[in-house]
């Protein structure tokens, strides 16, 4: 299975998450349920990364993934099914995939589940995972009302990136923060000129003719409603806005998580379509 490249800091964060998950599973009782999913409130419809943990009648801890939470695209679904089988998931007739172990081997379950988040759904950091069984978070006491200027806001964003995602080597140039590339697509964070929003942006390629561009936008707008495709300086840019009126770690990680999801699952196809359009290759939506 193809996995995104991770630096040592990112890998260490996943190692710590895997160990912590095994401990939580050990404490899971017979009547308890633990659900772990990706932060995805921006996309209320469609498949979301989600794993449900329960304890069987025999006292074994079982992790379950539903077919409904896998890719809706037939090719993507087939790739995920093959990948799950490779790392130890068992496909049942009821449309679920399970892996289970006794209390002495919960490291195995935690390892396989972590590989699923990394390899199946390309979750870039455990900060983008949400424990659905925890009570809803109260408004963050760490929210910040700041002068909306690069000098005031960008250092806070750098702190969030380092503290929440382990990205300590992001650079600031021309009042924007460059993020690590995802499948070859580089992106950055800057301040909007139109209000108190952060803008995650990426250049997806040279703009094709308006007819082809309209077809590409129409084909992807419903799947990625929180991402805007626009043309500037003869290039196509993807932009995802994050509310920064009261900046907090929670809303920043939520917004950045959905942006990474787009870069991993949406941007590659759009880049390919733009490239095909510019090369004159036919495309049927």
TrEMBL record:
Pfam families: TY-Chap3. Residues 12-129 form the TY-Chap N-terminal domain. This is TY-Chap N-terminal domain-containing protein.
């Amino acid at each position: 299975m193809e996995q995104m490249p991770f630096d040592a800091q990112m890998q260490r964060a996943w190692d710590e998450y895997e160990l912590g998950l095994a401990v939580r599973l050990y404490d899971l009782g017979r009547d308890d349920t633990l659900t772990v999913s990706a932060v995805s409130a921006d996309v209320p419809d469609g498949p979301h990364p989600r794993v449900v943990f329960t304890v069987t009648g025999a006292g074994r801890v079982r992790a379950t993934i539903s077919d409904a939470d896998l890719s809706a695209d037939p090719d993507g679904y087939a790739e995920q099914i093959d990948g799950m089988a490779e790392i130890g998931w068992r496909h049942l007739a009821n449309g679920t995939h399970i892996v289970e172990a006794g209390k002495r081997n919960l490291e195995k379950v935690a390892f396989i589940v972590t590989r699923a988040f990394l390899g199946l759904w390309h979750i870039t950091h455990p900060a983008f995972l949400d424990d659905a069984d925890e009570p809803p978070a109260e408004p963050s006491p760490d929210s910040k009302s700041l002068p909306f200027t690069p000098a005031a806001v960008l250092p806070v964003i750098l702190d969030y990136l380092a503290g929440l995602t382990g990205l300590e080597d992001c650079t600031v140039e021309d009042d924007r923060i460059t993020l690590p590339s995802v499948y070859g697509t580089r992106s950055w964070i800057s301040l909007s000129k139109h209000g108190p929003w952060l803008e995650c942006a990426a250049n997806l390629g040279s703009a094709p003719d308006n007819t082809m561009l309209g077809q590409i936008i129409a084909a992807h707008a419903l799947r990625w409603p929180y991402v805007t495709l626009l043309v500037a300086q003869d290039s196509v840019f993807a932009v995802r806005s994050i509310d920064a009126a009261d900046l907090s770690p929670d809303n920043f990680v939520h917004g950045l998580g959905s942006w990474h999801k787009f870069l991993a699952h949406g941007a590659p196809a759009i880049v390919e379509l733009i490239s095909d359009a510019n090369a004159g290759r036919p495309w049927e939506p």
